[in-house]
Amino acid sequence: MINYILFDLDDTLYPTSAGMMHEISERMNTFMIERVGIPRDDVQRQRRDYWDRYGTTLRGLYIERHIDPQAFLSFVHDVDVASYLCPDARLEAMLAQLPQTKSVFTNAPADYARRVLDALGVARHFAHIFDINFIEYHSKPTQFAYDKVLAALPVAPRECLMIDDTIRNLVPAKKLGLQTVWLASPTDWQQLGGDSSVDHTVQSVYDVARIIASNEAGTC
Q1: Angle between the 43-54 and 20-31 helix axes, to the nearest 10 degrees?
Q2: Would the pTM of this model clear 0.85, i.e. be above it?
Q3: Cis previous bond, 141, omega within 30
Q4: Do 38 and 138 fall within a single domain?
Q5: Are 197 and 105 members of one domain?
Q6: Same domain for 61 and 106?
Q7: Domain around 95
Q8: What confidence tens digit (pLDDT) does each residue in 177-217 have?
Q9: Are residues 175 and 210 in the same domain?
Q10: 103 CB contacts (<8 Å, ≥6 apart)?
C-alpha cells in the first residue's frame, strides 16, 4: 500500500516544454562566468564534470569553488515563474484524487518551489517541501539526501512512491526500498521504453494516478 508520494519539481510537475529550466540553466552559466570567474568557453565542461561527480552544478561549485550557496540559489532561481507556468486543472484534479500524503523532493530552494506550486495551482496538495536547504546542499542523487528525507517521513520506505524525470535520482530511492516512477522524456521513451533500475516508466505526470491504482489493485 502506498501511503506517501514524493514528487520531483522541475520538469516533473510541469513539462520540459514550458522552457523555464532553460532560463535557469542560462542563469547558472552567467553566475559561473560573472560571479565565479570561470571562462565562458569552459563553463559547459565544468558543469558536465560537476554533474557527473557531484550530482549538481551547485554542489560542485560549493565543494571546489567554495561559493556562497544561498547567493547561487537566489540568483539562479530569480525567474518570473508566472511567465512560464499557469494553473494546471488536469494536474490539480489528479492530485485531488490521490489520498496519499504528497511532498516535493527537489534540488531547488523551497521559496522557488512554492512559487512553482502556486503558479500551477496545486500548492494545497503538498504537505512538505524537502528542498536543497533541507538536505544541506547534498542534492539528489547523493545518499545523504535520501537518508535525510526518509528519516523525516512518517512511513516505511516500501510505503512511499517517488517520481522523478531523472533516472539516476531514482536508483538510490529504489535501493532504499521506495517504489519508483521515472517520468521519461519522449526521446528516452522511444529509445528505452522503460528501465529495470526503476519500477515504472511513464510519459506524463498524469499517469501517476494510474500507476498507483494498478499497484493497489495488485496488477503491477
Answers
A1: 110
A2: yes
A3: yes
A4: no
A5: yes
A6: no
A7: 4-15+85-216
A8: 999 999 998 777 655 555 568 999 999 999 999 999 877 65
A9: yes
A10: 4, 5, 6, 7, 126, 127, 128, 129, 130
